[in-house]
Specification:
Structural class: alpha+beta
Organism: Pseudonocardia ailaonensis
Helix content: 10-25%
InterPro entries: FAS1-like_DH_region, HotDog_dom_sf
Order of helices and strands: EHHHEEEEHEHHHEEEEE
Pfam family, one: FAS1_DH_region
Protein name: FAS1-like dehydratase domain-containing protein
Oligomer: single chain
Number of helices: 7
Number of domains: 1
Length: 340
C-alpha cells in the first residue's frame, strides 16, 4: 500500500478503478461486519415483496467500501476527516460494484491540515448506486503520517415549516445509546474482511504499534457499527424484530427506541438516504462507544417511488468511555408507507 504525499496530488486526478463482485456470501459478510440484521440486507423474499430487486448491502458496507477505496489510493498514512454517502440505488447479490473516483479539491486548512476532497461513486450495470464526498488529510513529508484531529461543532439546522406535529415534538430530545459490545479486533477484522480492506492500521499489529496511531484502530467508516443493537433486537418493528416470527419478542430486552427511527403515523418502513460522517479521535480495541441521538429535522409529506413518506434528519454524536468525541453522524432517513 503506497503512501501519497499531499504535494503529489493534482485536482482532476482519477483514482484506479475497483471492481467488487457481490455474492450471497458478500451479504452474509456485510451482516457480520456491520452487525446489521435489518431484513432489507439479508431477506431476499421480503425485499422483493416491497418492490425492490432483492436484498441489498447496507449503508455501512458502502462506507467501508468507499473507505477501502480511498486508502488503497492514499495509503495508511492518510487520515479521514469526513465522508458523505448518498445512496441512489441498491447493490444486490449478482451485481459487480464498480468503484471510481476523482480528486475534486486540494487545500490547506487554517489548522495546517493538508486536505484533499475525493468524489467517489459506485455503479452497477443499471447505473450509479452511491456517491461519496470524502475528505482526507495527507502527510506533507515522506515517512510521516497525517495527524488525528478533534471533532468540530455541527452545522446549524433550519427547521422545515411543513414538519408534522409528531416529529416537531421530538426535535432536540436526546437519547443516549450505549453500544452493547466493546470495540474489538475481531469485529474490526470482520468489517475489514467484508470489503477486503488491507489497511495495516486495522489488521497488522506490528505496523500499527510502530505507527503514530500506537496500535490497532477501527476503520473510521465503521463508526456506526459500534452502537448497533444486538442482532436479535434489530428489525423494522423493534417490539417484534423477526418478520417471520411476529409473536417472538426481541432478546434479551427490547432495543432502545431512538427518536429518529420512531415511525410517524401511517408510515411502515424506513431506509437510509444520505449520511455524513465526521471523525474525531480514533477508536481502539477495548473502547466502549455511546451515541447521543436526536432528531434535528423532518420534511412535510412527500411522494417517493416506494410510497408516500417523510425525510427525517437525525444526528448522532459518538463518545468513548473517556467522554472524548470520536465522531458524528448526520443521517437523512426516508420513512414511508410501503405500496401493496
Amino acid at each position: 500500500m503506497t503512501a501519497r504525499l499531499w504535494s503529489d496530488v493534482e485536482v482532476g486526478e482519477e483514482l484506479p478503478e475497483l471492481r467488487f463482485p457481490l455474492t450471497l456470501k458478500t451479504l452474509v459478510m456485510a451482516a457480520m461486519g456491520t452487525r446489521d440484521l435489518m431484513p432489507y440486507h439479508h431477506d431476499d423474499q421480503f425485499v422483493r415483496s416491497i418492490g425492490m430487486r432483492g436484498a441489498f448491502v447496507n449503508t455501512m458496507f458502502h462506507q467501508g467500501l468507499f473507505g477501502r477505496f480511498a486508502t488503497d489510493w492514499a495509503g495508511p498514512t492518510a487520515r479521514f476527516r469526513s465522508a458523505s454517502l448518498r445512496m441512489t440505488d441498491q447493490l444486490v447479490a449478482g451485481d459487480v460494484a464498480v468503484v471510481s473516483g476523482t480528486v475534486v479539491d486540494r487545500w490547506t486548512a487554517d489548522d495546517g491540515d493538508a486536505l484533499v476532497r475525493l468524489e467517489l461513486r459506485t455503479s452497477n450495470d443499471l447505473g450509479t448506486t452511491a456517491i461519496s464526498r470524502t475528505v482526507l488529510a495527507l502527510p506533507t513529508v515522506a515517512g510521516e503520517h497525517a495527524g488525528f484531529r478533534a471533532l468540530g461543532e455541527p452545522e446549524p439546522t433550519v427547521l422545515s415549516d411543513a414538519m408534522p406535529t409528531e416529529a416537531r415534538e421530538q426535535i432536540g430530545v436526546t437519547s443516549p445509546r450505549p453500544g452493547p459490545y466493546p470495540v474489538s479486533e475481531a469485529q474490526i477484522g470482520y468489517f475489514a474482511e467484508a470489503v477486503r480492506d488491507a489497511n495495516p492500521l486495522y489488521t497488522d499489529p506490528g505496523y500499527a504499534d510502530a505507527s503514530p496511531a500506537g496500535g490497532i484502530i477501527a476503520p473510521p467508516p465503521s463508526l456506526i457499527v459500534w452502537v448497533m443493537d444486538r442482532g436479535s433486537q434489530v428489525g423494522i418493528d423493534l417490539d417484534r424484530p423477526d418478520i417471520h416470527l411476529p409473536e417472538q419478542p426481541p432478546w434479551p430486552v427490547p432495543a432502545h427506541k431512538r427518536a429518529s427511527l420512531r415511525l410517524l403515523p401511517g408510515m411502515t418502513d424506513v431506509v437510509v438516504q444520505e449520511v455524513l460522517l465526521e471523525f474525531g479521535v480514533p477508536l481502539r480495541p477495548g473502547d466502549r462507544v455511546t451515541s447521543v441521538n436526536e432528531l434535528v429535522n423532518c420534511s412535510g409529506a412527500k411522494q417517493t417511488r416506494v410510497g408516500p413518506g417523510h425525510f427525517l434528519t437525525a444526528r448522532d454524536t459518538f463518545v468513548n468511555q473517556r467522554d472524548e468525541a470520536v465522531g458524528r453522524s448526520t443521517m437523512t432517513l426516508l420513512q414511508f408507507r410501503a405500496q401493496a
